[in-house]
């Protein structure tokens, strides 16, 4: 089972308990083709060869039945890996020749980069002096829910919303992809020249590394998600100075990083 345990604070009805929570591992896998970096995908480690083989097939890079040679070039304790696959030039499909990585690019904001070093995000850690209460978070999520028109009709879209320090709604956007919804929100604030007012990012699904990195670059210090957070999301939230909260629903929430931004006790 690919999980790690993280200390966190579980809050219910303004009462808190320190707990040890299991989070799904998220780590980068760099895929090389014929010793040339091709793409990076964020995945839960395990069955990496199957993942690569399926990716090559879906991208029309290799659809032959003949088995391929896979070499693990690097495998770190943090589960980041580099795997090289050898494919003869005459058997490389059009997907490789056209340099198309549509499957990996559409899955997340980081996937599609070519090397592990490309994942580095630099900058000073964020800070936040204005605390947010559990009640205010619930009220913000209610506003988000009220504006999810596409989800009400289809049940198949994600949403993101950004609020200022007064818990006033600045923008909300829906999309079939969580990362796309976040990008749309940040883009709308840039267009209206109010990105500096952003303080809280709400996400309708889970939070992985890409969303944390997007919030950091936009200088948004608080992320609250309806669902789970990945290990890499928590690790980077701690490093970036971002308060990261998951499972915010039914008067509950679990705080994984920088709890000092939240007022949750009576």
TrEMBL record:
It comes from the Bacteria. InterPro entries: Cytidine_deaminase-like (IPR016193), FdhD (IPR003786). Its main location: cytoplasm. The keyword Cytoplasm applies. Gene3D superfamilies: 3.10.20.10, Cytidine Deaminase, domain 2. The lineage of its organism: Bacteria, Pseudomonadati, Bacteroidota, Flavobacteriia, Flavobacteriales. It is found in: Cytoplasm. Keywords: Cytoplasm, Molybdenum cofactor biosynthesis. Belongs to the FdhD family. Mo-bis(molybdopterin guanine dinucleotide) binds at residues 247-252. It comes from Tenacibaculum polynesiense. The keyword GTP-binding does not apply. Required for formate dehydrogenase (FDH) activity. Acts as a sulfur carrier protein that transfers sulfur from IscS to the molybdenum cofactor prior to its insertion into FDH. This is Sulfur carrier protein FdhD. Pfam families: FdhD-NarQ. HAMAP family: FdhD (MF_00187). The gene is fdhD.
